[in-house]
Amino acid sequence: MAGAVRHGAWLLALATLPVAACDDLRGTPLHPAVDWQRDIKPIFNELISASGRCTSCHGPGSFTGLDLSDVQLDAIYKIVGSYVVPGRPKDSLLFLKINCDAPPVGARMPPGAPLTRLQQELIHDWIAQGAYGEPDDPIPRQFIGRDGFESLR
Predict the structure, then answer these.
(1) Contact criterion met (CB below 8 Å) for 143 and 151
(2) Residues 26 and 104: beta-carbon distance below 8 Å
(3) Residue 76 neighbours by CB under 8 Å, 6+ apart
(4) 68: burial class by Cβ within 10 Å (0-12, 13-18, 19+)?
(5) Which residues lie across from 52 on neighbouring strands?
(6) Smallest Cα–Cα separation from 34: which of 26, 25, 43?
(7) 3-state SS, residue 98
(8) SS (H, E, C) 7-46
(9) Cβ count near 16 (within 10 Å)
(10) Whole-structure pTM value
(11) Which of 68, 70, 110, 113 is deepest in the core (most CB within 10 A)?
(12) What is the pLDDT of residues 12-50, one digit of tens each?
């Protein structure tokens, strides 16, 4: 329920987001078959700036509430449903936070060192393609709950 409330709050803020405040990715080629393990997870774990990686601040027990680490559960299951709306990058807080100077909540991430255009494109295309994990993922996307946790079904 908390994930749905959080989702609803920032989704309402989308209506007031100035388009000019976001990087324009139009005209760039699509990246087919973007893979979570190969293309997306390394972005969170690579050295972005002197302050470290995304997971330096967004790790276990993070004060931000967003844990991009694989501690206890792969990060994909923590973000899909809460910060990522599969198939809809422009409705996904994760994408808006890395792509817009004035996202609906908080500030652009990572602070002081925006992701490269290629990194933004890959995250956009991964979300647009359904935000899937590994091809042999034992939990089909429809069984991931809104809160990002596994369904008990």
Answers:
(1) yes
(2) no
(3) 36, 41, 131, 133
(4) buried
(5) 49
(6) 43
(7) helix
(8) HHHHHHHHHHCCHHHECCCCCCCCCCCCCHHHHHHHHHHC
(9) 8
(10) 0.73
(11) 68
(12) 555 454 444 899 998 888 898 899 989 998 898 876 655
Token pair for 150: 């596994």
Please check whether residue 109 is in contact with residue 98, taking contact to mean a CB–CB distance below 8 angstroms.
yes
Looking at the DSSP assignment, which residues form a beta bridge with residue 49?
Answer: 52
- From the list 133, 131, 152, 130, the residue with the least C-alpha distance to 143 is 152
Residue-wise pLDDT tens digits, 68-113:
888 888 888 888 988 999 999 999 999 999 999 999 988 999 887 8
Tracing tokens 């807080």 back to the chain, one arrives at: 93
Tokens of 46: 């690579």
Q: Tell me how far apart the alpha carbons of residues 100 and 108 are, in angstroms, rounded to a whole number.
A: 6
